[in-house]
Structures are given as C-alpha cells and as structure tokens.
Amino acid sequence: MNRRCDVGRNDWTIEDVAARFEEAASTGRRLPPVRVQGYFNTWPIIVRKEWETFAADEHVYRPFPPTPEAIDRMLETMKWVQWLEVEQRHLVWMRAKRYGWRDITIRFACDRTTA
Fold it and tell me: Is residue 60 part of a domain?
C-alpha cells in the first residue's frame, strides 16, 4: 500500500477514504483464520528428508499478520460502513477488494456508468 491512511480528521479526501477501505480489506485478508478453541494436535512434528518433500503439497502462502494499529483502523473503517445502505456496502467492499467494474455491474445488474 503506497498511501498512508493517517490524516487529520478535517483533511479527508475521496482518495484517503478509498485508501482506508483498501487497507481495511487487505487487513481483513491477513487476519488469522477462525478456529474452534480447545482442539489441538498431539502428533509430533515429522522432519522429512529432502527427497520426501518433492511429492508433498505446496505450502500455502500466508501473509504476515496485521499490526494492531492496522486492525484498529480496519475496525474504525467498518464502523463507517454502518452509515451506508446494504447495497452501498456491497459496492464499497467490492471496490475495496479491487473487483473490476464489469463484475460490479453484473452483481448490481446495471450499466458501468451507473455503478
């Protein structure tokens, strides 16, 4: 993310709000998955030899977890969404997740210029 989302309360522009929503979507993707508490694996970790790892599945890439400040900004941004109507929320999050305008027009059944 190239833009900083730390601006004063009186200095908000459309680009700053869009950057904040993009950062919130990125932060949400980087959060760890929700798991059921109380279950754990008792099997020991198996150290495999190099030739055994060739047939193994590829490792799933997991980005670094977000910072606490990024989570706070994400939660603040999610409070903003409550001011919008449900359809507007879907539109804002689809743009924050960088969906193309074609996908958005299909979702909302409208022309590209309308969306």
Answer: no
Given a contact cutoff of 8 angstroms between Cβ atoms, the answer to whether 29 and 63 are in contact is: yes
48 within domain boundaries: no
Domain that holds residue 82: 14-30+65-114
Number of domain units in the chain: 1
Residue 3 in contact with residue 16, Cβ under 8 Å? yes
Instruction: Give whole-number Cα distances, 11 to 19, 25, 74, 83, in Å.
Output: 14, 22, 19, 20
Q: DSSP of 62-85, one letter per residue?
A: -PPPPPHHHHHHHHHHHHHHTTS-
Measuring CA to CA, how many Å separate 47 from each of 40, 51, 54, 74, 102?
Answer: 19, 12, 14, 39, 48
37 within a domain of the structure (yes/no): no
H-run or E-run covering 15: helix 14-30
Distance separating the N- and C-terminal Cα atoms of the chain: 25
- pLDDT for 48-94, tens place per residue? 787 777 777 777 777 889 999 999 999 999 999 999 999 999 999 99
pTM tops 0.90, yes or no:
no
